[in-house]
Structures are given as C-alpha cells and as structure tokens.
UniProtKB/TrEMBL annotation:
It is an enzyme of class 2 (transferase). Belongs to the class-I pyridoxal-phosphate-dependent aminotransferase family. It comes from Brevibacterium linens. This is alanine transaminase. Its cofactor is pyridoxal 5'-phosphate. Keywords: Aminotransferase, Pyridoxal phosphate, Transferase. Gene3D superfamilies: Aspartate Aminotransferase, domain 1, Type I PLP-dependent aspartate aminotransferase-like (Major domain). Residues 40-401 form the Aminotransferase class I/classII large domain. GO terms for molecular function: L-alanine:2-oxoglutarate aminotransferase activity; pyridoxal phosphate binding.
C-alpha cells in the first residue's frame, strides 16, 4: 500500500487568499479555555439567541407545524409563498420592480453571498468591498476567483463610505460594488444621499450593486434604513440580501433571501448562472423557508428592542458610553446593527499586532472580542465589540477591558 504523505491531503490552492478570522485562532483559544473550565464573556459573534433574545413565537410555531409536511425538496429557488412574501414586503418598502422569479431563498444570506459571487467572477474580475467589511464578502470574492478591492469607509465621517476613494478604485475589470448597510462591523447606516451617489456611480460605470441589508430592521436613534433597490431602479442590477438571522433572532434556522432587480434581460447570463448554482444545491432548508412569511407578515417585535428603552437600544448606549470612557479607546455611536468598531490608541498601548491584543485580553480578562484586521481593516488599531450581551455583562466586560488596558503595553 502506498504510504500517506502530507501532500495527498493538502487543501485547495483556491483557499490561499480566503480568510475568515472572526472564527479563527482567538476563538479557538477561547474554546480551549472554556474546555478547561474558564467562563468567557463573549463579545465576538452576532448570534442573538444565546444572549436570551427569543424568536417571535409565530416563527417557531410555523416551523414546528410545517416539519411533518416539509420532508421533500422544494423548488430550488424556494417555496412560492415565501418568495411572494418577500416581494410583497419589498413592495411596501418602495421596491416595485421585483418578481418572485428573481427571489432566491438560501441557507442564510451566507450561502447566497458565495453563490452570487461564484456565478459571476472570472479571475480578472474585481469587486469593490468596503474596508472594514464583514469578512465573508472579501473571502467569497477570493474564493470565487475574483479580486476583492477595498474602498475606504471613513471613520472621521462616522464610517460613511468615502465615495471619492470608491470611484478612484474602479478599473475596466471592476464588476460590482458591495454595500453593507447597516454595516457590520461599524454600525453605520448610510444616508439616502450617499446611497443615491453609489447607485449613480454604479449606473455610470455599468456595475452591479450587492446590497447586504441583513440588519435592515436593526436601527437606532430614529434612523431608518433606505433599501438600495429603491434607488437603483431598472437600469442598475441590484442584488439585495436579507434574512431572518438577526432581526428575527433565528440565526440557527439558516433562512435568508436574495432579491434581484434591474435590467434583467441584460443580466440573463448571470441570472442563469445563479439559477444553475441554486439548482445544484437542490434548495435551502425547507422548514425554515416557511418561517419567512410568518416573519415578514407579523408584528415586528424587533421594533421594541431597538428603542432606547428596549434591550438592544439600551445595550448599544452602554457600549457607546463605556468604550468612550476608557482611556485610549474611542468609538462612534452606531446607528444600526449589533456592533461597535472601537479604535485603540496604538501608540499608547504599543500595539503592532491586534490579534495578539485580542489573545492577551482573552487570556488575562476572559473577554472575547474580534480584532479589527479580521474585518480587512488595514491597521492593528481596532476591535469589534458585539452589543448583544445584557447591560450587566457589557458593563462587567467594559470594566475588565478598562482594567486590562490600564496596564497594557504590547511592545
Ligand atoms: N451579512 C452580514 C453583514 C452579517 O453580519 C452576517 C452575519 O453575521 C451575514 C451576512 C450572514 O448571515 P446569515 O446568518 O443569514 O448567513
């Protein structure tokens, strides 16, 4: 028998530039510490359920009731009633050019992000991705063989996209612009004017807009999200991504959608590619598809949670005040999502490696945060804090962070 060699089990070279460090070595260390009996304060993953956010009852009931009758595959795009619910929902939001044929249901938005990029990118293609970004976008562009090109989101401008920088990065190889709004990791929500300008840039250069709106219902401070597809109209191809993981607190059910609007005739080849890949994975989790109609049609219980008096609103405020009260830390007020992207004074703390900073914090104070470079941020001077834990846990974590930093010097 032939002997084994490391070479036989090597991973694909396709993965050479694929990074997803928010579930990387720091998390592994935290898991090892937990296995050794330590209690870790987790401020690292935007997964509402473990923090005591229960799903609306109608969703759980709908899934349970449908379990006996959803044993088979569905249409690969998804069940018609759910796709209709998505169309009707967007109709009420001011998107009037969407049909059920252009709605694809997926195992979370994640699957649809990778699928839509796999169907598009050739090796020479470039996709503009925000920096910082939710790293699945950069990773999926790289996995699809394309090249992610990061445009700057300006911290000094409350993390709004720097449109001059964005436009300056467009080349004849650019195919699309990714917009994450509300943004993970910065919590920024983009104004209508900014979105209009992005739509205009896309129109001028013939680019696709990928609008990741998974946090669309999670906004604070009276800010309301404008759906990108209300501005891209019939002449810009817009792929809108959203789903149930965050606003409906059922990340584990894996239920999301992709809605495509714009010049569909011209996009025929790309749409056929998306259909082909959707067919190849048969369909998404069918019981979870049934939750979509119940979710979109029912009372939006998230509305109460994001009020200043609601749990999410109150926690966001505590995180904002707590971070800014620590010497050497500053953070913008987030208008949406579940995160703050806080800045560290690297001179003061001598930080040259932010992953090491996260590891040191974890080992010393048992707090788990995600380091900023995991979000394709170019400098080691940020970290992301999840605002899902209760006010008590957040307060405790921020106190420990303060204690840690008061004596911290990396080099
Ligand atoms: N897009 C963004 C911006 C996210 O933050 C996340 C999850 O954190 C996802 C997509 C993935 O969501 P899903 O659970 O629907 O796959």
């Amino acid at each position: 028998m032939k002997g084994f060699s490391v070479h036989m089990f090597r991973q694909s070279s396709k993965l050479a530039n694929v990074l997803y460090d928010i579930r990387g070595p720091v998390l592994e260390e935290a898991q090892a510490m937990e296995a050794a009996g330590h209690t870790i304060l987790k401020l690292n993953i935007g997964n509402p359920a473990p923090f005591g956010f229960e799903a609306p009852e109608a969703i759980v009931q709908d899934i349970s009731a449908n379990l006996p009758v959803t044993q088979g595959y569905s249409d690969s795009r998804g069940i018609l009633s759910a796709r209709r619910a998505v169309v009707q929902y967007y109709e009420t939001r001011g998107i009037h050019n969407l049909s059920t044929d252009e709605v694809f249901l997926g195992n979370g938005v994640s699957e649809l992000i990778t699928l839509s990029l796999q169907a598009l990118c050739n090796p020479e293609d470039e996709i503009l991705v925000p920096g910082p970004d939710y790293p699945l976008w950069t990773a999926s562009v790289a996995l699809s063989g394309g090249t992610p090109v990061h445009y700057r989101c300006a911290e000094e401008n409350a993390w709004q996209p720097d449109l001059e920088d964005l436009e300056s990065r467009i080349t004849e190889r650019t195919r699309g612009i990714v917009v994450i709004n509300p943004n993970n990791p910065t919590g920024a929500v983009y104004s209508k004017e900014t979105l209009q300008k992005i739509a205009e840039i896309a129109r001028r250069h013939g680019l696709i807009v990928f609008s990741d709106e998974i946090y669309e219902k999670i906004t604070y401070n009276g800010v309301e999200l404008v759906n990108m597809a209300t501005l891209t109209g019939d002449d810009v191809l817009c792929l809108t991504f959203s789903g149930l993981s965050k606003a409906y607190r059922v990340a584990g059910y894996r239920s999301g959608w992709l809605a495509i609007t714009g010049p569909l005739d011209e996009a025929h080849s790309y749409l056929e590619g998306i259909k082909l890949l959707a067919n190849m994975r048969m369909c998404s989790n069918v019981p979870a598809q049934h939750a979509i109609q119940a979710a979109l049609g029912g009372k939006q219980s998230i509305d109460d949670l994001v009020l200043p008096t609601g749990r999410l609103g109150a926690q966001m405020q505590v995180a904002y005040e707590g971070l800014n009260s620590i010497d050497g830390v500053s953070a913008h007020r987030a208008d949406g999502a579940l995160y703050m992207f806080a800045k560290l004074d690297v001179e003061k703390f001598g930080i040259t490696d932010d992953e090491q900073f996260a590891l040191d914090l974890l080992r010393e104070q048992k707090i788990l945060v995600s380091h900023g470079t995991a979000f394709n941020w170019p400098r080691p001077d940020h970290f992301r804090l999840v605002t899902l834990p209760s006010v008590e846990v957040l307060t405790e974590a921020l106190e420990r962070l303060d204690t840690f930093l008061s004596g911290y010097r990396q080099v």
